[in-house]
Structures are given as structure tokens and as C-alpha cells.
Amino acid sequence: MDVLSRPAEEFENDQSVEALWAMKAFEHAEVYFNLLSSVDAKLLRLTPLDDTIYRLFREEFPIFDVSLVDENKLKSTQEKAKWRPFCERFKNIVEDYSFGTLLRSDASKDYDEQNSMLVTRIQFYAIELARNREGVNDIIRKKFACKKSDSKN
């Protein structure tokens, strides 16, 4: 049985489980960034509900700057109060909607210790769908595709 699929209440503060979560979040980030580096982000489908997630995100957060996300602002009491109802809308329709997922603060850069924050999976989807559809992630393919092909030679 996959330990990560069990209820969180069973584990209290088990460091081995925290390490598994961190590894899973990092693997997800690595796969996603590789996709951004090699495919036109506007063509990426993250979920079967991309259109709905994006539409509701922009209805509820019309001026949210997805190019540069301030972690302190995103996790402020005021912002959490706005995000909570948005996230809960997807509780029974988006698999793993509340899983911890790494998000890049600055959309023009790779994941690293200074440019990564932990958000819920549905927040990741909402922000990354906006970045993809609004052309914000286009820079990743331009910047990093050349580096990938250079490293293969």
C-alpha cells in the first residue's frame, strides 16, 4: 500500500513520511519543468478540468500576478481566506487537490531553494494554467531548451 495515500492523521510528525512527500513534490516539479522546457506551454493540459480551473481562477483572482508570486502575500491570513473557498470547490473533483506541490515564485526561473514554495496542488494548477495560457511560461522553453540540447552534445 502506498503510504502517501493514507490519511495524514495517522502519521503525526513522522519525518520519513515528510521526506517521502518532499521527494514526491520534487519529482513532480522536475517532470513539469522538463515539459515546460520542451513543449509549447500553451498546448499543455494539466487536468481534464483545465478550462474550468483557469476560468474560476481568473474570475476570483482577476489581477493576480502569476509571473512573480510573493510567498508571504500568498500565505497571508487575508489571501488564505480568499484561496480556501476556491480550493475547496475542487475537493471532490480534482484528484489530490490539496497535495503539497512546489511552485516557482518567479516564472522565468527554474526551481531552486530560493525560487520554490510549497502550495496546494489546486493552487499550482490555477497559477500554472494562467502562466501557460497567458504566455508567461514561454520564456522557460526559450531559456532552457538551448541548455538541454547543449548538455546532450
Automatic annotation (TrEMBL):
Domain Polysaccharide biosynthesis: 17-141
Gene Ontology cellular component list: cytoplasm
Pfam families given in the database record: PBDC1
Membrane spanning residue stretches: none
PANTHER family registered for this protein in UniProt: PROTEIN PBDC1 (PTHR13410)
Protein name: Polysaccharide biosynthesis domain-containing protein
